Amino acid sequence: MKAVSALALVFSLLPTLACGQTDSKKSEYFNQNVADSNPLRNEQARELDAYIQKMAADQSRFKKLFQPDYSSADAFAKSAQAYRSAFCQSIGYPPPGKRPDLKASYQQIGEDSIGIYYRAMLPILPGVHSEGIFILPKSLKEKAPLIISMHGGGGSPEVALFNGGANYNDMVRGAVKRGYIVYAPQHLFRADEFPKDIRRQIDDRMRLIGTSITAVEIAKITYAIDELIKRPEVDASRIGMVGLSYGGYYALVTPAVDPRIKVAVSSCYFGVQEGRYEEEELSVPPDFRFMDRMTLFNDADLVALICPRALQIQAGATDRPSHREKGKQLAPRAKAYYEQLNLQDRFEHVIFEGGHEFNDASAWAFVEKHL
């Protein structure tokens, strides 16, 4: 019985001994309430927020990158080369992949009193085409200028061309009526067999391979120009570009990349993203959020990559304020590049009576003057 009692006593003491050992082990290490360091994490967030704001306002990187030479138009263009290279690197242009050694195809789809219409398929990247509508004016008697006519978000060459052209008005046929050859390419905004956010998905995936949808869609224009200027009808020294809304974005960034475009009209776009950024940084759509978009490559300074070539910026007086007001603030800064070269007539900022639409009257007068 004594042995049993002794054994029972040992078992009854085991929990106490275990607790004693645990307490002893805990005491060997420094400990602290985790929540006590929460203020440090809050401070880290505040520091990073302040850092972003400081860098966003810092102009020193831009001034170091771009040191304009105003001694002549040619000198200015040469001084912008490093800035252009930085912009191309930021968006991932040129896109990776060997350009295919395939022939372009032009299938006639229609004809009317002013032109002959073709469906053009121009190979630009592995398995990728620049597809659009190519129009030869019937008035053609010799080589003629080429106009790139770029539709807006959710649109298409067909929307901009057929059944009155919607809010594009005469953005496509207006060029043909004036004897210009037209290429109206298709960019990706929707595809019936794919999700509604297919543009964002493709852009996200492109960034993982070193490019962006902006870079590829610029290439759908610039690589197409490489092909189109081989045609005997096209005057390679006289290329212009017009675009509405999203097309206005491309009418700004494509001439910034390709100096062959001698005159551009950017309608209902200029300053829109800068306005969004000021209100709420992340309200800027993902495909506009390329590296340094708001520090080095804002709309006003991208104009320096077009200058001394001619640029008209349009905005509708009854369009949404977001498509006009910030652009009005930025326009003098853009115009200053031309003023310092004494080339004021090559830059126009036009507020026309109308809404979110292409203004034919001011656009074609400007194109005819400078092309």
From TrEMBL:
<feature type="signal peptide">
    <location>
        <begin position="1"/>
        <end position="20"/>
    </location>
</feature>
<keyword id="KW-0732">Signal</keyword>
<dbReference type="Pfam" id="PF01738">
    <property type="entry name" value="DLH"/>
</dbReference>
<dbReference type="InterPro" id="IPR002925">
    <property type="entry name" value="Dienelactn_hydro"/>
</dbReference>
<dbReference type="InterPro" id="IPR050261">
    <property type="entry name" value="FrsA_esterase"/>
</dbReference>
<keyword id="KW-0378">Hydrolase</keyword>
<protein>
    <submittedName>
        <fullName>Alpha/beta hydrolase family protein</fullName>
    </submittedName>
</protein>
<dbReference type="GO" id="GO:0016787">
    <property type="term" value="F:hydrolase activity"/>
</dbReference>
<dbReference type="InterPro" id="IPR029058">
    <property type="entry name" value="AB_hydrolase_fold"/>
</dbReference>
<feature type="domain" description="Dienelactone hydrolase">
    <location>
        <begin position="166"/>
        <end position="271"/>
    </location>
</feature>
